[in-house]
Amino acid sequence: MRRFLPSFLIIGCLLLSACLPSESILPTETPVPSDTPLPTSTIIWFPPSATPTLLTVPTYTATPEMSPGIGSVIFTDDFSNASAWDTAASAQGSAAISRNRLTLAAEPGVYLASMNREAILSDFYAEITARPSLCRGEDSYGIVIRSTGDSFYRFTLTCSSMISVERYRSSVRLLMLEPTPSGDAPPGAPGEVRIGMWAVGNEMRLFLNGRFQFSIIDPSSPSGAFGVFVRGEGDTPVSVIFSDLIVYDVDYIPPTRTPVP
């Protein structure tokens, strides 16, 4: 048997539900899909900063010519004439010409040089090939230019791939460029490098394998003889083979420098 509420009770319940505050009705939350990643905050890797003041850098319309004025060949040496170079042999080292090569070998702690007796050079561009056959660490070799007895310039390569230059004047040594690393200097033996020297007036520029390395300016010795050297700095001998010397004339007048006011 069904029982029915009186109609006035039904109307009263409806009125009460309409009078409840809206906050009492809890909203149904929409579930977050499991495969949707939650939003994350954006990371600013490089936060904005104040714009720096740009430095003024000079621009050039063309690559500077580092060996200008090279002219005709004025001297060559294929190392077939032993009398053209200083040669000697002792327990400390040797300088010998054989099979179109000049070989310099020195014991540890010994410096050995061989000068060409036929060429006195002033303005020139010269190239010679050097092949270290026994060389390590601070052992060194290179070229001597503008030699006049006890005054000359010595451009040095070490077997740790460093380059430098010294000036000797009346037997007083001056280091004109501190040892500087070069990727063109062979890191030990066996190795090979084409050494180039551009010398005009009081400026001298070193090249290795045709690439410019550095420049020095010094008026002490404007001309002189050309030679090569080795020096043993470690506890083992050093030996380097030199060949294929060629010298060009250089006709070049350096630009006059504008005095700074």
Q: What's the topology here?
A:
Elements: H1 7-19, E1 70-77, E2 88-89, E3 93-98, E4 101-106, E5 111-121, E6 124-134, E7 140-147, E8 152-158, E9 162-169, E10 172-181, E11 193-200, E12 203-208, E13 211-217, E14 224-231, E15 238-250
Antiparallel strand pairs: 1-15, 2-3, 3-4, 4-15, 5-14, 6-11, 6-15, 7-8, 7-14, 8-9, 9-10, 11-12, 12-13
Structural summary, described in words:
By secondary structure, the chain is mainly β. It has one helix at residues 7-19; strands spanning 70-77, 88-89, 93-98, 101-106, 111-121, 124-134, 140-147, 152-158, 162-169, 172-181, 193-200, 203-208, 211-217, 224-231, 238-250. Strands 1, 2, 3, 4, 6, 11, 12, 13 and 15 form a nine-stranded antiparallel beta sheet that branches. β2 (88-89) and β3 (93-98) form a beta hairpin. The protein is globular, with a radius of gyration of 40 Å. The model is unreliable at 1-28 and 38-63 (pLDDT under 50).
Any key phrases for this structure?
mainly beta; 1 helix; 261 residues; 6-stranded antiparallel β-sheet; 5% helix; 9-stranded antiparallel β-sheet
What is this entry, summarized?
With 261 residues, the chain is mostly beta strands. It has one helix and 15 strands.
